[in-house]
Amino acid sequence: AMTTHVEQHARTFTCRLGRPLSYIEAGSGPDIVVVNAYGVSTQLWRPVVERLGLTNRVLLWDMRGFADGERDLKFTLADHAADLEEILDHAGSTSPHFLAYCSGTKVALTAYEKLKDRVQSFVFVGGNFWPMTDFGPMQCRFAVNLHNLAQMVKKRPFMAPVVVTVMRGNIIALPSVTENMSMIPEEYRDLVVGPFTSKEAVR
After folding, report:
1. Could you give the C-alpha distances from 13 to 50, 52, 82, in angstroms and in order?
2. Cα separation, 49 vs 59, whole angstroms
3. Do 83 and 15 touch, CB atoms closer than 8 A?
4. Which of 8, 10, 92, 146 would you call most buried, defined as having the most Cβ atoms within 10 angstroms of its Cβ?
């Protein structure tokens, strides 16, 4: 079968903070907005964008505050949701569908409070809904444990290297996690665990 390449374009504009905010735009058609997880590179979504971009316009971005030059931002959930809203406005996206991954789920739902008239649908992939309280049955045990670890590091930053060691050695070595990781192409596995591989990222 013939493979069609979907061009990806980087868009940058000056946001409400007076700083540049960048996102990727690919394909054309009804809008699908990928709301990525905290600290996970958009490179993880490259094959998905290639597929979805054949029939849709896809928008996605690297959430701010996790790269070395952005740690001063100290973004909250509301800040990430504000970025999402600004990206939609800049892209002229009036009726998007949200595809939200892990912690991106709560960013999408927070933004939805202001965008109810625009958002057409949600798809949650491995959703992490904390601190929202209405999604208990959809919250996975991993997300609960991850939240507990995050709270510990917030109170005791010196524990960040311990969390890295646990995530690298114990958690990723669990049979269920190993099985899931084996389904991910090898070139993307480091992107999935990226937020847990250094003490700077964990903090």
Report:
1. 24, 24, 14
2. 9
3. yes
4. 146
Residue 121, H or E segment:
strand 121-125
**pLDDT bucket at 166, cuts 50 / 70 / 90:** low
Identify whether the C-beta of residue 192 lies closer than 8 Å to the C-beta of residue 181.
yes
Q: Write the pLDDT tens digit of every residue in 143-152.
A: 666 667 677 7
Q: To 5 degrees, how large is the angle CA 12–CA 52–CA 124?
A: 85
| Of 51, 11, 54, 35, the residue nearest 96 (C-alpha) | 35
Dihedral of CA atoms 177, 183, 189, 193 in degrees, nearest 10, equals: -30
Average pLDDT over residues 46-51: 91
What pairing do the DSSP bridges indicate for beta strands 57-60 and 20-26?
antiparallel
Burial class (CB in 10 A: 0-12, 13-18, 19+), 106: buried
Beta bridge partners of 97: 32, 121
> How many angstroms separate the CA atoms of 12 and 19, rounded?
10
Q: What is the pTM of this model?
A: 0.74
The closest of 149, 81, 91 to 115, measured between CA atoms, is 81
> Under 8 Å CB-to-CB from 70, ≥6 apart: which residues?
64
- Those residues whose C-beta lies under 8 Å from the C-beta of residue 113, and which sit 6 or more positions away, are 81
State how far Cα 15 lies from the chain centre.
Answer: 19
User: What is the Cβ-side half-sphere exposure of residue 101, based on CA atoms within 13 angstroms?
Assistant: 19
Tokens of 90: 């800049």
